Amino acid sequence: MRYFISCLAVLVFILPNTVYAHEMVPAYPRLEPAFVEGVIKADLTLFNRRIDVDFYQITVFDKEWKPMPFATETNIMPLEYLSRKKFTVYLREEDMDKAGWVCTRSKILKGEGPAVVSSRICSKFIIGEP
Asked: Is the pTM of the predicted complex or chain greater than 0.85?
């Protein structure tokens, strides 16, 4: 009986506190040649499941998790609740073997609420043919 009450108490506290994050697909984006010589690209889609967040920051990391230079339409992307947005990340072809991850982090405006959590989602680059 004690075990049942303990489990019930845990469920009562955990279930109402559901945490929603954003989603980015594909989980393993393929780096492929871009329309400009010497440039490679990866196409991704971001979905915002967080009602408290309207902006996401894009970053690219190498295989040792050090920031890498990259280009995209904007480094901080506006995205409304329950909306999707496609974006492309461009890298120099010479950096192809170094590229490891593309990440998006939710950006919360200062003073937006008492307890807000920033979420980060990362996708690992795939290089070459499958």
From this structure: no
